[in-house]
Write a structure and sequence with these properties.
Layout (H helix, E strand, L loop, with lengths): L7 H14 L13 H32 L5 H10 L1
Length: 82
Amino acid sequence: MSSSRITDDQITDLISKLQTLLPESHIQSGSRVSSARVLQEICNYIRSLQREVGDLSERISEFLSTADMSSAEAAIIRNLLM
């Protein structure tokens, strides 16, 4: 057996850690659910975060394309993005 092999206990621990990263609306923290369900919810959550990032990126791009680039708001956004 290789020393790099992940044990069942390690997998269980990693699944528990992933479950704690989910918002409470997805799976209640501490509740007993299958590893497959936790992984499925993590994937769904990551996809929703990617959509949210895309939406925010579009909104920022639209704002910057129409904003007075010398405005205080545009300067703040530029600083945040760097």
